Amino acid sequence: MFRMRRRRDVLLPIEQDILSAALELRRRGTREFFGFRVARAIQSETGARALVAHGTLYKALGRLEDLDFLTSRWEDPAAAEAEGRPRRRLYQVTAAGQHALAAALAAGVRHSRRATGRTALSWR
Amino acid sequence: MAMMTGLVLLVITLCLGAFALPLAERLIVGFVRWSTQGLPPEIRDRRRGEIQSELFEQRRQDAADGYKPAEIAARILVRWARGIPDELAWHREVLRAAKKARIVKKPRAQILRPTGIPSQAALGIPTVTEDPPLPPLGWLDGTASAAISAAGRYDEQSRQMRRAAIQAQLTSMWGNEVVCPPPSEPPAEEADP
Fold first, then answer.
1. 3-class SS string, A92-113
2. Enclosing domain of residue A50
3. Would the ipTM clear 0.90, i.e. be above it?
4. ∠ CA(B67), CA(B73), CA(B74), 5° rounding?
């Protein structure tokens, strides 16, 4: 079966949404975010009815980290324990991630949610 | 298809009522445990930890938003079901990368694997007859080379010492990174007298 190979310098709409939501969170004072937090932010930003699926979200987060657009670390176990919840994996947008998003937006292509998964943005 | 699955899950969870939430969480945790089997430990543990956290956060948020447990279960299950194709694709990608790494690791495995010796020992054939060819060691520093020289004759014990020395040297040089001997070195020759 024919399968398209992803280019490393291409941002998928979900990845663009993640970076965009993460930067919006940062503007509001949240420097680091975790999966569920960014899923909620994406939902409110895009007006989607449902949250991004687990598999889709974490696959995209992993790819963004591979591209050095995000960094991540485990939360301090003591903080999680104090609140009686599992540890969170905390992500942060890097300067490269910020530039990548800015370049993608500057390219003037903004995909609607309907296009998610079918087309991609390139910043070169 | 996804919509149909979502509808079925919705009906089932609403029928199960309050029991649906722990069952749904158990199902997802079980799926993630299954789907991360065979992956490198750090990737496996990370994904499992992230899903645990994700389930907790969603349950807490949905409860705060006023959803009933059965509704929360339905929301969690539908969300999980929509991501299954991506989850499986991610699994395939990680496995493919791991396989590639194994291929690169092969030269080291060839150097370090003792062939012939166990079968000889099983048959009672003496293993010390002549010095087997040495693996290429020019790319190791003096520590390992000295340890190997000290091993003297290459009987089973000294082979083990040599293997341990090389292993220690490689680990100290590259940690768990994939190791490949430089192209100038010839491939390892296996001694199988």
1. EECHHHHHHHHHHHHCCCCCCH
2. 10-116
3. no
4. 90
Q: A86 and B80: CB-CB below 8 Å?
A: no
Is A2 inside a domain boundary? no
Helix axes B69-82, A54-66, angle to 10 degrees: 50
Sequence ranges of the domains in chain B = 2-82, 107-174
Q: What is the pLDDT of residues A21-75, one digit of tens each?
A: 999 999 999 999 999 999 999 999 888 888 999 999 999 999 999 999 999 999 9
Distance, in Å, from the CA atom of B93 to the CA atom of B168, rounded to the nearest integer, reads 31
Contact criterion met (CB below 8 Å) for B58 and B75? yes
Is A40 contained in some domain? Answer: yes
Between CA B5 and CA A12 the distance in angstroms is 26
Residue A55 to residue B86, Cβ atoms within 8 A: yes
Our count of domains for chain A comes to 1
CATH number at residue A71: 1.10.10.10
Tell me the two tokens of residue A65. 């980290």
Asked if the structure places residue A122 within a domain, the reply is: no
Dist. CA B47–CA B32, nearest whole Å: 8
Q: Does B53 touch chain A (CB under 8 A)?
A: yes
- pTM higher than 0.90: no
B39 interfaces chain A, CB cutoff of 8 Å: no
User: Under a CB-based contact definition with an 8 Å cutoff, are residues A89 and A34 in contact?
Assistant: yes
